[in-house]
Write a structure and sequence with these properties.
Helix content: 40-55%
Order of helices and strands: EHHHEHHHEEE
Strand content: 15-25%
CATH architecture of the largest domain: Orthogonal Bundle
Largest sheet: 3 strands, antiparallel
Shape: elongated
Structural class: alpha+beta
InterPro entries: WH-like_DNA-bd_sf, WH_DNA-bd_sf
Number of domains: 2
Distance between the termini: 5 Å
Organism: Methanobrevibacter curvatus
Pfam family, one: HVO_A0114
Protein name: MarR family protein
Strand order of the largest sheet: 2-1-5
């Protein structure tokens, strides 16, 4: 099974991500001078290119080849709820699909382990499930 995980970003989002990671383009250039054979070169080149073409969307694609992932109807339903309804908790998802919260929690943790979702911190240490990618393509 081949799973393609696709994330689309605007140039503004990418710029903010790079600033958060490196501080500024100048800091990244100085860091690259100290370690010239580093993969940071690609980050710098991409950053410059994208700032020169701000209207271009950035499409990141990660490909996973596996025969171990198990995604059934419940998991797809969970992913759709997370994408379309932005639930604030695992319990909210369980209520929407009328399933036991413990069972849904197991399925959500499995999706997180597979890298399909992540969690943000919510109120009172709750976990807010969010999609890691905008689009998931599965080829069998």
């Amino acid at each position: 099974m081949i799973i393609s995980l696709i994330k689309e970003q605007s140039t503004k989002e990418y710029d903010e991500q790079m600033k958060k990671e490196y501080g500024s383009m100048e800091k990244l250039e100085k860091l690259l001078e100290k370690t010239p054979e580093n993969t940071l070169y690609f980050d710098l080149q991409n950053w410059k290119l994208l700032l020169e073409n701000p209207e271009e969307p950035i499409i990141k694609k990660e490909v996973i080849i596996t025969d171990k992932i198990s995604i059934g109807e419940n998991e797809i339903q969970i992913l759709n709820i997370i994408k379309n309804e932005k639930p604030k908790s695992v319990r909210e998802i369980a209520l929407k699909i009328k399933k036991d919260p413990a069972n849904i929690n197991n399925k959500i943790n499995h999706l997180a382990k597979e890298g399909l979702i992540s969690f943000k911190k919510g109120l009172k240490n709750s976990k807010i499930p969010t999609l890691t990618y905008d689009k998931i393509e599965i080829a069998i």
